[in-house]
Specification:
- The protein is an alpha/beta fold.
- It folds into 2 domains: about 70 residues, Orthogonal Bundle (Chemotaxis Receptor Methyltransferase Cher, domain 1); about 160 residues, 3-Layer(aba) Sandwich (Rossmann fold), CATH 3.40.50.150.
- It is built from 11 helices and 10 strands.
- A 7-stranded mixed β-sheet has the order 6-2-1-7-8-10-9. It has a 3-stranded antiparallel β-sheet with strand order 3-5-4.
- β1, α6 and β2 form a beta-alpha-beta unit.
- It is globular and about 60 Å long.
């Protein structure tokens, strides 16, 4: 590749549209036009180090070269979002008061309760669910409760498996959790193996029915603050896959500002406090 130039070029709107359409075609995610400047800085920091002299040159490369690792890296740069532990309090209250008793009951009956965290990023959400369950049910084991964190980004999945988190990521941790479940590593925190045992991670494009076919017999799906980035067609496709993945009466939890379009599936909206979730209706209901 060519040596990078000192002057940063502009990501004009026509080129941004090419990148946006490329991302949507492969992931279903729609990049907002208002965030062009954010993506410009993020993308140039990457491609200038590779020796590209313009955004147009880089787009031609990823769209024509067949360089799959670089295509994957590009999609990661454009789709990764911030997350942290114990986010969305209303949904965590629903989890603690409604799902934890079901997990306890299923465990007592010799059954496994399975959760899927779709769009899990670097793992803070699935680990949060594991910590809450371990705190509420001290006797729970990975044979009774399992969480899968799914994300399209291989880099995020690898970071999640490492289980090493910044002070920023754990800033809302309830009292006692940090000391009990983490080990201090310089300025970061490593989650202990006893908690990691409950969580596995899978590189998944949730807008791909073929990818979602790997996830079956799920009791609860958490897909928070993810739907807002997808087109309407992609949301309908994802909702259908989620419905197929869930067991009867299984539930889907979306972000506080997200909702399912009526008529697409047989999900029944329910409310618990400030949390609206969707239950998979039993046949004949």
């Amino acid at each position: 590749m060519l040596a990078a130039t000192a002057n940063e070029p502009e990501l004009n709107m026509s080129t941004y549209v090419l990148f946006r359409d490329y991302v949507q075609e492969r992931t279903g995610i729609v990049l907002a036009s208002g965030k062009r400047a954010i993506f410009e800085a993020r993308l140039w920091g990457h491609i200038s180090g590779l020796g590209f002299r313009s955004f147009e040159e880089y787009f031609y490369y990823i769209s024509k070269s067949g360089d799959l690792p670089e295509q994957e890296k590009f999609l990661e740069l454009m789709t990764v979002n911030e997350t942290f532990f114990f986010r969305d309090k209303s949904q965590l209250r629903f989890y603690e008061s409604t799902l934890i008793p079901i997990i306890r009951r299923e465990a007592s009956a010799g059954k496994k309760f399975r959760c899927l965290c779709a769009g899990c990023s670097t793992g803070e959400e699935p680990y949060t669910l594991a910590l809450i369950a371990m705190n509420a049910i001290p006797s729970i084991t990975p044979f009774q409760f399992e969480i899968t964190g799914a994300d399209i980004s291989r880099e995020c999945i690898n970071k999640a498996r490492m289980g090493l988190f910044s002070q920023y990521a754990v800033r809302r941790m309830p009292k006692g959790y940090l000391e009990r479940f983490f080990v201090r590593k310089d300025e970061a925190f490593l989650i202990k193996n006893e908690a990691r045992a409950f969580v596995k991670f899978d590189k998944t494009n949730i807008s791909s029915p073929a990818d979602m076919d790997r996830h079956r017999n799920i009791n609860a799906i958490f897909c928070k603050n993810v739907f807002i980035y997808f087109s309407e067609d992609a949301r309908e496709r994802i909702a259908a896959s989620f419905y197929k993945s869930l067991v009867p009466d299984g539930c889907l939890v979306l972000g506080p500002s997200e909702y399912l379009k009526e008529g697409g599936t047989h999900f029944v909206p329910e409310k618990h406090g400030e949390c609206v979730y969707y239950r998979k209706a039993c046949s004949g209901e």
